[in-house]
Amino acid sequence: MENTVKAVDYRLIRNDVFIVEVEDKDTRSAISGADVYIDGIFFGETNAEGGKVTSFVERERSHTIRITTDEYLAYSDDVYIASDVLVYSAELSKTLYPVTISVYGLDKIPVGGEQQLSLMVRIPVQPMTMGGPVLYTWMPVSMRCRWQRKGLPRSQNR
Predict the structure, then answer these.
(1) What is the residue range of 72's domain?
(2) Euclidean distance between CA atoms 118 and 45, whole angstroms
(3) pLDDT per position as a tens digit, 8-31
(4) Are the C-beta atoms of residues 128 and 137 closer than 8 Å to each other?
(5) Number of domains the chain is built from
(6) I want to staple 51 with a disulfide (CB 3.0 to 4.6 A). Which of 19, 22, 75, 90 is the partner?
(7) What gap in Å lies between CA 99 and CA 119, rounded to an integer?
(8) Under a CB-based contact definition with an 8 Å cutoff, are residues 138 and 99 in contact?
(9) Are residues 88 and 101 in the same domain?
(10) CA pair distance 34, 31, nearest whole angstrom
(11) Total-model pTM
């Protein structure tokens, strides 16, 4: 019997690799800079080349995926990750809208002259589909603000 040597190419692949892709729901473009958490553990920030984060998770069980980033509604999903699932895609919706609030006194004159307070607030929206593009309806929202003029005690502020 002749003794021969054979070369074998092989590649070791982890069986717990799991990729999370994050994209804008409206534009379908990748979102970079989003923080990705799986079961409360931070796995990283999505990259600029496709909005992806590579993680390592146990298969054949449920996990909670949470994604947060500026200008988008926080995303959370409980998902069962089967042994053959490699990539999970999440679509995020924008929800921050600029709002300007002018403060008027009882005499209907702007408080503090022409000063305005600019805020970024989260306004809840609800998607509606009517056989075409997705429309968003504004959900009722109320806010209560309190501020005081510099130098005046609280009792003299209205």
Answers:
(1) 17-92
(2) 29
(3) 776 666 778 899 999 999 899 999
(4) yes
(5) 2
(6) 22
(7) 6
(8) no
(9) no
(10) 7
(11) 0.55
DSSP structure class, residue 140? P
Say whether both 100 and 126 belong to one domain.
yes
For residue 49, give both structure tokens.
């080349």
Look at the block and give the residue holding tokens 């306004």: 123
Token couple for 26: 């409206």
* CATH code of the domain in which 54 resides: 2.60.40.1120
Q: Residue 68 domain-assigned?
A: yes
| pLDDT tens-digit readout, 30-63 | 999 999 999 999 999 998 777 899 998 998 999 9
CA distance 40 to 29: 26
Please state, in angstroms and rounded to a whole number, the distance separating the CA atoms of residues 155 and 13. Answer: 68
Same domain, 74 and 28: yes
Q: Is residue 62 part of a domain?
A: yes
Beta carbons of 71 and 115 less than 8 angstroms apart: no
Report the distance separating Cα 55 and Cα 63, nearest Å.
12
Tell me how far apart the alpha carbons of residues 39 and 56 are, in angstroms, rounded to a whole number: 12
**DSSP code of residue 16:** T
- Within this chain, do residues 74 and 87 fall inside the same structural domain, yes or no? yes
